[in-house]
Amino acid sequence: MQVRVLGCSGAIAKGCRTTSFLVDSDLLVDAGTGVGDLTLDEMAAIDDVVLTHSHLDHIAALPLMLDAVGSRRTRPLRVHALRATIEALRAHVFNNVIWPDFESIPSLEAPFVTFHDIAVGQVLALGSREPKRIEVLPAVHTVPACGFAIRRADGGPHWVFSGDTERNAPFWERVNALDVAMLVIETAFSSREQVLAERSLHLSPAVLADELAQIEPGKRYPIYITHTKPAETEEIMSQIEVLAARQVAGLAERDIRWLKADGVLTF
Ligand SMILES: [Zn+2]
Ligand SMILES: [Zn+2]
């Protein structure tokens, strides 16, 4: 399985794109602005999209992508998300005001997109060319949200993505029960903005440490930090390093890296 990082920034700027991952060639995880780097053929080859939540930085490219490749595809693009996320997309994006209702275009019988409800705890079997098992993980955010644990359908370790979240004990309970190849976890704000992080239900370095301290002893896997604001990335990463150097529980002796866009994670 291969995960191509299309976007992993908490905002846009030159060279910074928002959250989106291409898993193998057929599954998209979130549809932030990173999708715009795909060719038409690459976009048209995606059969399923799973969304963590309705925030714009995770869905911005979905309407544009449907417009770009809907007519090149022979089947609707299947979008899988929590019921509340789908309702938000229908009400606020695909409402024939912001963007056309592609659930009925070009026809109700053969639309560009279909929406499919998912729920936390559910396990999906997706991947038209490269079958995958996708478990929907809990997240704690200002809107209903989730994370994902994805592995090949025939076995192997999981790629785990937290989505946007704050403190989340049920997430660790589940992750500790899985064979994890790598964890991608958000840290959207620096310690300086810890109050804002708490209000917007995102992580900051000290809370990240508390969270990682819940990883079962003996479990070792690389941890990639995502969703850093472009203006704060260096500050966030150096604060994590300082806490790690002080042997703060959760960060000491962990393999923590900043997630780079354009990279490919293979396992
Ligand atoms: Zn969010
Ligand atoms: Zn976000």
Topology, element by element:
Elements (H helix, E strand, L loop, with lengths): L1 E6 L12 E4 L3 E3 L10 H5 L3 E3 L5 H4 L1 H9 L7 E6 H10 L20 E6 L4 E4 L5 E7 L7 E7 L2 E7 L7 H7 L4 E7 L7 H6 L5 H8 L10 E4 L6 H13 L10 E3 L5 E3 L1
Parallel strand pairs: 3-4, 4-5, 5-6, 10-11, 11-12, 12-13
Antiparallel strand pairs: 1-2, 1-14, 2-3, 7-8, 8-9, 9-10
Bound molecules: zinc ion (ZN) (2 copies).
Structure characterization notes:
There is one protein chain. By secondary structure, this protein is α/β, with parallel strands linked by helices. The chain has a single domain, classed as Ribonuclease Z/Hydroxyacylglutathione hydrolase-like (Metallo-beta-lactamase, Chain A), CATH 3.60.15.10. It contains eight helices and 14 strands. The strands form two sheets. The chain has a seven-stranded mixed β-sheet with strand order 6-5-4-3-2-1-14. A seven-stranded mixed β-sheet has the order 7-8-9-10-11-12-13, covered by helices on one side. Strand 5, helix 4 and strand 6 form a beta-alpha-beta unit. The longest helix has 13 residues. The mean pLDDT is 96.
